[in-house]
Specification:
Layout (H helix, E strand, L loop, with lengths): L3 E4 L11 H6 L17 H22 L2 E12 L4 E11 L8 E7 H14 L23 H19 L8 H8 L4 H4 L5 H17 L6 H49 L6 H66 L4 H56 L3
Length: 399
């Protein structure tokens, strides 16, 4: 059966932020013209923060020299599988690119290939996570519009996070991903299965052996990641539970409102207040639906993205520890004088350099990741706060 292309149509800290930095938004030195303090309403605080956020985004955009867009998903049907292909558009001013614009088609597996190559070549850099591979229990709805759009946005985020990274954006694999019409030949150039399996076995062995002297800064980093993971996972779960409860509340309001309208038809003296209640319920239903949509489209994706980031960070920490564990093991063997001293000394020196490079890479990426995480989550939280203010203001407004 030949491949068939079908357009995918769309219908329709807790984060350990510095305390003073967090409180700053609530203590802006705002005052009226006469010098008296200006009251900080929720709306005014949100708008002030939104203005600062827009200025930061504009500064970031001015500094970029590579822009990537993921769009136009298409369903491809073959005799053995159905999959989605996404268009990846790139515009750049970088000299290492032969052209300033590229257009290629990529499927989810291609994004997985890129991420694995980046992790393989930069084991202690923080490579932004991809959305999870779809689970079997949801296979029936795998290619519905909402799923495709959610994945498209996540893939778009993934590529743009890489394009903004000072090291990963210069990767040859990233450039190939953005420019090559076909990736098959490039995928064959990677390490073989047995080679990868050997690295995995060695990594597990090193993890079991453990470390003798992990630097304190990385122990602190690991504790932070564990704490961050617990908190962001908790907030993610509670937010999803709130959305579920709000959907149930919305369903009940939609059944509740028409009852008052019907009642008004049989109670002439009560008709006006009954119609008023019906109108109020209808308005609340509409605003609740919008709030649910906002939480689902803005807050939940941001939270879940950093749930995945936490797992990525844990893996990076393990890889750093594995590199140090291998160095310590070789160093101990050298000290025991039971092996070829000269050959092992060279290997120990090389491993010492590798440990230093790994440590420096992670330390540099750590501060960059924290800054990005705080910007992303701050934006999601402020946007949600803004929507909550709007929701309650509209709910309290008389009809």
């Amino acid at each position: 059966m030949s491949g068939q292309t079908v357009p995918a149509d769309f219908s329709g800290h807790m984060l350990d932020l510095d305390e003073d930095e967090d409180l700053e938004v609530f203590s802006k030195n705002t005052s009226l013209a006469d010098g008296s303090p200006m009251p900080n309403s929720p709306s005014s605080m949100v708008n002030q923060y939104r203005l600062e956020e827009d200025e930061e985004e504009q500064q970031d955009a001015n500094a970029k020299d590579i822009f990537v867009t993921v769009d136009n998903p298409e369903s491809h049907v073959t005799a053995i599988e159905t999959f989605i292909m996404y268009r990846v558009l790139t515009k750049t001013t970088r000299s290492e690119f032969d052209s300033s614009e590229y257009e290629v088609r990529r499927r989810y597996q291609d994004f997985l290939w890129l991420r694995s190559r980046l992790e393989e070549n930069h084991p202690t850099l923080i490579v932004h996570p991809l959305p999870e591979k779809f689970v079997m229990k949801g296979m029936v709805e795998r290619f519905n519009d909402d799923f495709i759009e959610t994945r498209r946005r996540a893939l778009h985020r993934f590529l743009n996070k890489i394009s903004e990274h000072p090291i990963l954006s210069c990767s040859q694999h990233f450039r190939v991903f953005l420019t090559a019409q076909e990736l098959t030949s490039h995928k064959k150039q990677g390490p073989g299965f047995l080679s990868r399996m050997g690295e995995t076995v060695r990594a597990v062995a090193n993890s079991v052996r453990g470390l003798r002297s992990r630097p304190e800064e990385f122990t602190t980093m690991q504790e932070y990641v564990e704490d961050f993971s617990n908190k962001v996972c908790s907030v993610d779960k509670v937010t999803q539970r709130i959305i579920k409860e709000q959907r149930e509340y919305l369903d009940e309001m939609r059944q509740y409102g028409p009852t008052y309208t019907q009642w008004a038809g049989s109670e002439e003296e009560l008709a006006e207040p009954l119609k008023g209640v019906a109108g109020c319920v209808e308005r609340c239903s509409k605003e609740t639906e919008e709030q649910i949509h906002h939480l689902s489209e803005v807050l939940v994706p941001a939270l879940h993205e950093y749930v995945l980031c936490a797992e990525t960070l844990k893996a990076v920490m393990r890889r750093r520890d594995n590199i140090q564990a291998e160095f310590e093991a070789k160093n101990e063997a050298l000290a025991s004088r039971k092996v070829d001293q000269e050959a092992l000394q060279e290997e120990v020196d090389a491993l010492a350099d590798r440990v230093e490079l790994a440590n420096n890479a992670l330390k540099g990426d750590w501060s960059r990741w924290q800054s990005s995480m705080r910007t992303d989550l701050r934006s999601a939280f402020i946007s949600t706060a803004e929507k909550n203010v709007e929701y309650y203001e509209k709910g309290a407004r008389p009809s």
